[in-house]
Design a protein that fits this description.
Elements: H1 6-62, H2 65-74, H3 77-90, H4 95-103, H5 112-124, H6 130-136, H7 139-149, H8 151-164
Length: 187
């Protein structure tokens, strides 16, 4: 029997509610229009998604538990936090690329502070966004925003190290829809 993840059930409920609201608002024609938009978006993003999962698989093969253990030993503490934050900022793609990538580290017992530094680095730095930000807003404002936010992933990583130093990424809220030791009823 195939088990359905809780996150999928939540998304399906939200989808049903939204489709009902669209139907009430504009009828079946509007629902079909929304489904067409969804299909076009899926068709445009499918090649990127497929290639992203190939990249993720190759990176997982290259970054074995042994390689990550050596890296974490070499870059532990503040060095690890800074390197992880910068790596997050340099990591290409959107959430559909980097969330599956970092979720693969659960089995590799990556320290939580490295994980959280990577996530904050990706969201705060995201170096691929700088040219667009500079051209659409203004270079001076983009520079100021980037300079002001430099310490945020590092501070968050240091706080995570301080409070969760002995923890790895095997934390229940990271394993969305997975089993954890505190509740065996979760699928």
């Amino acid at each position: 029997m195939v088990k359905i993840k809780n996150s999928l059930i939540v998304i399906l409920i939200i989808t049903a509610i939204l489709m009902l609201v669209v139907y009430i608002t504009g009828g079946g024609e509007l629902v079909i229009k929304g489904l067409n938009i969804s299909m076009n978006t899926a068709i445009r993003t499918l090649p990127m998604l497929f290639v992203s999962f190939i990249v993720i698989g190759q990176i997982q093969v290259l970054l074995s538990k042994e390689v990550l253990d050596q890296w974490v030993q070499k870059f532990s503490g503040i060095k690890g936090i800074i390197v992880s934050a910068i790596a997050g900022g340099l990591f290409p793609g959107g959430p559909y690329v980097y969330y599956p990538f970092i979720s693969s580290f659960v089995e590799k017992e990556l320290p939580f502070y490295i994980f959280i530094s990577f996530i904050f680095g990706k969201h705060v730095y995201d170096f691929t966004r700088i040219p667009m930000e500079a051209s659409l807003v203004e270079p001076k404002i983009a520079l100021i925003r980037n300079l002001i936010t430099i310490p945020i992933p590092i501070i968050i990583g240091m706080l995570a190290k301080r409070f969760y130093d002995k923890n790895t990424m095997d934390i229940s809220f990271i394993r969305a829809g997975g089993k954890n030791g505190s509740n065996d009823n979760n699928p």
